[in-house]
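Provenance

Sequences were taken from public entries as deposited. Structures were produced by running a predictor on each sequence independently, with no templates supplied. The record for type I protein arginine methyltransferase from Drosophila rubida is shown for reference.
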Amino acid sequence: LTTIFIHSGISSQIHELMLKDRPRQEAYYNAIMKNKELFKDKIVLDVGAGTGILSAFCAKAGARLVYAVEASNLATKVALELIEENGLTEIVKVIYSTIEEFVLPTTAEKVDIIVSEWMGFYLLHEGMLDSVLYARDHFLKPDGQMFPSECTIFVAPCSVPSLFDYWQNIDGVNMQRFASKLRSQKSSRPEITHLKPNDLLHEGIVFHWMNLLDVNARDLDEICFKEVVATQSAGKHQGFCIWFDVRFPGEESVTLSTSPLAPETHWKQCVVVLPEENCEQLEEKSPIAFKILMKRNPNDARKYNLEVELLDPNEEEHPVPCSCHMTKCILTEAHLKMMDTS
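Predicted structure for type I protein arginine methyltransferase:
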C-alpha cells in the first residue's frame, strides 16, 4: 500500500505541474478550440492522454469520437472521472493501454487527428515521440492531421549566471570555490534551468526541424549539427542553451515555445555548461564554432545523450554572409553589399 501511495503522489504531482503550466495549456486549448472546423465530426486519438484534458478539449471542439489512450493506471482513473464529470462519456472512450498494444475496434475506421503532449526535455529526452509515430503509422488516415505538426530545436551560446556570477557574492561572502565544485558535479549532464533573455549571446539558430507527418523514428537515433555563429551581444560564454518550439496546424496557427524569450514553461531550457577553462568573455560579433551530437541512449530509447565540442573558428567554414568580426567575413559581407547596390 505504501508503494502505491508514493507512486500515486508522484504521478499526481507531475500532472499538476503540467496542468499549471499556462503556456502549455493555452497552446493546446487555442490550437484545438480555435480550429474547431478541423475537429467537427472527426475521430481523434489522444496518445498518452494523462488526465484526459486534451481529449475533453477535442470533444468540446466537436469531435465525433475520441480514443483517450493512457498506459498509467492512476491517470486512467483520473481521466475516467474527468470525462464523466464533464458529461463527455458518449464521445471520449478512455482506454487503459500502451499505444503499441492498443487495437482499434474491428469495424472502426482509422482516425482523422492524433493529439499528444509527448515532448520531453530539449524536445526528445524522456519524451514519447516514438509512440506517437507508431500511432501515426498504424492508426492515422492518409490525409490525417498531427497536433502538434512541426517541431524545431534551437541552440544558442549563453551565460549561466546561476552557476557562475551568483556565487561571487552571497550576502557579502565569496563562494566561487564552492561554485567550482558545483559546476564540476553538474558537468556530466545537462542542466535543466530557466535562463533570462539577456543570458543569451545569440537569439538562437535552428539545430533540427521535423514534420511529424513524415519523420521516421530511426532518423532520430542520432542528430549532429555543426555551425559557426557570431555573438549578437557581448557577454560571458559559459554554455549552450537548447530549447524547442512546436507548431500546430490550422487556419489559426498556434506555436508553443520554450525559449528564454517566451513565458516560462515546465520544460524550462537545457543548458550544456562549458568546462571553466573554455569559458571566456566575448565581444559582440565574436565567432563561436561548435558541434552538437544528440544521440539516443542505447540502454533506454526514450533518453538522449548530448555531446558538445568547441571547434576552432579559424579552421571551420563560416556561413555566408557571416556577421562575425573575422577579416574574411567582414570582407565577404562588404563584397556582398557592393554587389547588392551595383
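The first strand starts at residue 43 and ends at 47.
The chain has two domains: 2-117, 151-341.
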